[in-house]
Amino acid sequence: MSLAGDFLRWWGAELAALVPVAVRRTLAPSRDRLVAVVSDGAATDATLVREIGGRRASLGPLSTLGARERRRLAAAARAGRLTVTLAPPPAAAVTRRVSLPLAAERDLEAVVGFEMDRLTPFPADALYWRCEIAARRPGQGALDADVVFVPRAPFAGVAAALADAGLPVVGAALPGPDGALLPLRGGAEAAQRRAPRWGARLAWLGAAASVALCAAWAGLALQTLEDRATALEEQALALRRAAVAAQDQRRAAEAADAARLALDLRARTPLAAEALAELSAILPDDAWLSALRLTEEAVEITGHAADAVALVALIDASPGFAAPRFLAPITREPGEAGERFTLTARRAGVGAPVTTP
């Protein structure tokens, strides 16, 4: 009976994974959390810390976790008893203060998420982010909010390794001033909250079909259950990977390149974050970047804009850059919404700009 018991426990965890997150949270409000602490954006490994009832216990690196412990954690995650949170290094975060209408306070996160393309060089679905009100100005009908964002692409390797272990990341967090983890938006739970109603209905239909299938298989010989369970587990894992890939396909390549460049620049110079934040502030709403290269002497950017020539005056007026110039002719390709440009500018306080061959 042990083989049948193992199968039924595994199949029960699979059925629980099909139940929407909100329903699982209602039925089982007390859940443990597994925090994957990443120390380097280029790494594919993370230190696992399990939080149980306010207590924290380190499980060590994911790469050295035993097979038995991995199966136990994966079963808890599928059943909704364990959530997996990614904790990127604080140095990967960029903070920007933005001004919004006072009415935005009623649904601040929705407003910031909708405006993320304008507030930062990245779309919202390419970031882990959070926002909070820094100041209110009722006399001006405005408020100031601090937006903290972390590009998701540099941590895709860690997220993939966790998913392969049956521990899909459902959220991210950064340590606050008191050491407690502050949640970031952009995880799988947020994506599920934005899913249309038919997604939940399909989940319920899938659960009902799975129950019927389980009942039909109850009469099979016990010696075949283990092989069939393994095959079903592989199929379910392949379907989950395909669903995640479909969600991230939109603008993934461009956002990943830009995010990796931003993190690499931050690792090579302490001024990279300030330069990135200043570019986010001075570029107009109709301009976006597809490549960025930053050295200690100069910055080189490539992208599209409705009026590329106007960028020279905007960058020259910025206190952080000087002597902007184009490195190639401005072009407009058929089907593109804007002019393609490549220009460089000297970092403020540095000598002559570096000549790019």
From TrEMBL:
Q: Which UniProt keywords apply?
A: Coiled coil
Q: Which residues form a coiled coil?
A: 222-249
Q: Which Gene3D superfamilies match?
A: 3.30.420.380
Q: What InterPro entries does UniProt report for this protein, alphabetically?
A: ATPase_NBD, Extracell_DNA_Util/SecSys_Comp, PilN
- Per its UniProt entry, which superkingdom is the organism in? Bacteria
Query: Matching Pfam families, A to Z?
Result: PilN
This protein's name: General secretion pathway protein L
The answer to keyword Coiled coil applying to this record is yes
